[in-house]
Write a structure and sequence with these properties.
Elements: H1 7-73, H2 87-104, H3 117-126, H4 132-145, H5 149-153, H6 157-164, H7 170-187, H8 196-199, H9 207-218, H10 227-235, H11 244-252, H12 257-273, H13 301-305
Helix pairs in contact: 3-4, 3-9, 6-7, 10-12
Length: 336
């Protein structure tokens, strides 16, 4: 016997069915909405994509530009260096560097050949804008013809110019040599003076030349700020100045006068042999653990080894007549 359902029962039975239908319908609506969104999205995304694509080359270019700097910045720092240091810490580090240089170059010396103060003065004037090696190859013939200030002061300018031509800027240098020789003859009885004030009054003689002569011919302490010394003093944060006189003053405040002359030789030796201007040999440098500029050059030890010059690279030094304790071979004469 079939029992008739009441209205309440029908309503109760229909509710689950409606819910089920609703559940079934909802995904369908979502799908339709998704399709609509998907249909619209490509157009929108394509425009954005085009815009993004247009800007990507610029970003890539920027990235490419930044890459070398990023690599340079990420060069590993050796242990023992504090990025931010006090004045006292910098001074302590500077003295440690000097000790390392003294161990590395116990034979450091002036790299100009000379036998007396006059020869050293002339050779130093000639060394401007050229190498000590080229000066050493030029001065034997020069001093053979003009051994004294009196002889050089009486030289025929054209003949003097021809003798010193290999050193470059020979006309200007000849004028300086004639002028300083005449001044030595007339004002100093043919003798080279032993004070900074007197030396810098001579034609072609500045503080650098004066201190080379004072330190190496007279034993008077002085700091020789040439291009190598200035470069390394800045790399080691002993100074920030480009002015040689200020560099001299800053470094003089760090070291005792008794160290000035030999410090100059050691720093210049290191600048010529390892800590080059364009590509320092960081990976072969004994100062690396103390150097704030480590990583500016080649850090790979094998590659750095190939950058070493003069005796450190197994090559001749700059002097034709080096000191007895010099570990490398002497330089060849001009044309040799």
């Amino acid at each position: 016997m079939t029992t008739k359902k009441t209205a309440a029962e029908k309503t109760t039975a229909e509710k689950p069915a409606k819910k089920a239908a609703a559940k079934t319908t909802t995904p369908a609506r979502k799908t339709a909405a998704s399709k609509t969104a998907a249909t619209k999205a490509p157009g929108t995304k394509t425009a954005a994509a085009k815009k993004a694509t247009a800007t990507k080359p610029t970003k890539t270019a920027k990235t490419a530009t930044k890459t070398p700097a990023a690599k340079k910045a990420s060069a590993p720092k050796p242990p023992g260096f504090a990025k931010r240091e006090s004045r006292a810490a910098m001074v302590e580090r500077a003295h440690a560097i000097n000790e390392v240089l003294a161990e590395t170059y116990p034979y450091a010396h002036p790299e100009l050949d000379f036998e007396d103060p006059f020869q050293l003065l002339v050779a130093t004037v000639l060394s401007a804008q050229t190498t000590d090696l080229r000066v050493n190859q030029t001065t034997p013939a020069l001093f053979a013809k003009y051994p004294t200030p009196e002889d050089m002061a009486a030289a025929v300018p054209e003949e003097l110019e021809e003798l010193i031509r290999p050193t470059g800027f020979f006309r200007a240098k000849a004028r300086s040599l004639l002028g300083l020789s005449a001044a030595l003859r007339d004002d100093f009885d043919g003798e080279v003076p032993a004070t900074v004030d007197a030396l810098v009054k001579l034609p072609g003689v500045g503080r650098k030349t004066a201190f080379v002569v004072l330190g190496n011919a007279f034993g008077v302490p002085g700091i020789t700020v040439d291009t190598h010394f200035g470069r390394l003093a800045r790399r080691w944060k002993w100074t920030t100045s480009e002015d040689p006189v200020k560099v001299e003053s800053d470094v003089a405040a760090i070291f005792e006068p008794s160290e000035w002359t030999m410090l100059s030789h050691r720093v210049i030796f290191h600048g010529r042999r390892m800590c080059h201007s364009r590509r320092p040999a960081c990976g072969a440098c004994p100062v690396a653990p103390l150097c704030p500029s480590y990583g500016e050059g080649e850090t790979d030890p094998e590659k750095a080894e190939k950058l070493l010059k003069y005796e450190k690279g197994g090559m001749p030094g700059q002097r034709l007549k080096p000191p007895a304790d010099f570990p490398g071979p002497p330089a060849p004469p001009l044309g040799g």
